[in-house]
Amino acid sequence: MTPPVDAGGNSRIRPVEVAAGNDRVRPVDETAGNGRVPPVDPAGNGRLSATLAMRRRAMAADLIEQAALELFTTRPMDEVTVEQIAAAAGVSVRSFYRYYPGKEMILTALPVRLATAIAEETARRPPAEAPFAALRNAVDALTGETNDYLRRWQRAMAHSYGNERVQQLVVTVTSPMLTEALAGRAGLATDDLWPELAGISAATALVVGARRWAARRGSLRAHLMEALDLLGGGLGPGPAPDVTGTPGRG
After folding, report:
1. Which domain holds residue 25?
2. Is residue 248 part of a domain?
3. 58-72, 98-112, 124-138, 143-157: which has the minimum mean pLDDT?
4. Among 23, 33, 120, 233, which residue has the least CB neighbours within 10 Å?
């Protein structure tokens, strides 16, 4: 899969913050930290310096992410400290906290980028597609061959995606995006039962698929689609038990 990229096409993470009170993740203002583009003077004298500042901050965030991933590939996240991540990235601990409220949030970076792209692609799908089918097809369209970038994530996730805090955090920060996309397709409010339940369920299915991909390798697309297809089928009655009474495995 080629991850969603910024305007420069460089796959760098855009720093994120959790909006107060609703656990939504949004891009951080690169100069003020409030999600808004800083004003420039009419003559445009501040535009270049603001752009350079944005690039420097994006590079720093990318360094932190990559340093953390390398550390997470060698041992579980719980055994890695913020101080170690900052030292490996060549930044101060204070600088680390300018981009991430905690080390767990680093492991939401890829899911947030992917969920954002899925939500946008879901909205663009042909009108004839039903809401959940549009989301499924968006995931199918956005996932593909594993590259070096994803392999680093895969190794890091293999150590840390069994962490319940990380799984819950990923669902928390991605489900509102999917809920909004599904609500838009269905012509419903985001707090209506179907889009809210479908968004949370889809986010959970993607986390489970990603966790299985990290543990079992193979194709990310195949694991994600398997989880979504099971969800889309309403889970069914569940696997039948075998003759010994042990629940069957699908």
Report:
1. 16-36+47-102
2. no
3. 143-157
4. 233
Return the half-sphere exposure (C-beta side, CA atoms, 13 A cut-off) of residue 88: 17
User: Do residues 32 and 126 share a domain?
Assistant: no
Tokens of 30: 């690169």
Is the CB of residue 224 less than 8 Å from the CB of residue 209?
yes
d(CA 216, CA 110): 19
Asked if residue 112 and residue 98 are part of one domain, the reply reads: no
Residue 49 and residue 80: Cα distance in Å, rounded? 35
> Would you say residue 136 lies in a domain?
yes
pLDDT digits (tens, 9 = 90+) for 79-121: 999 999 999 999 999 999 999 999 988 888 888 889 999 999 9
Q: What is the pTM of this model?
A: 0.69
Could you tell me the maximum CA-CA distance found in the chain, to the nearest angstrom? 79
Beta bridge partners of 16: 27
Question: 249 lies in a domain?
Answer: no
Please, where are the H alpha helices in the chain?
45-72, 82-89, 93-99, 109-124, 131-142, 148-160, 164-186, 193-216, 220-232
- Report helix, strand or coil for 159: helix
| Inter-CA distances, 73 with 116, 152, 214, 232, Å | 25, 8, 11, 33
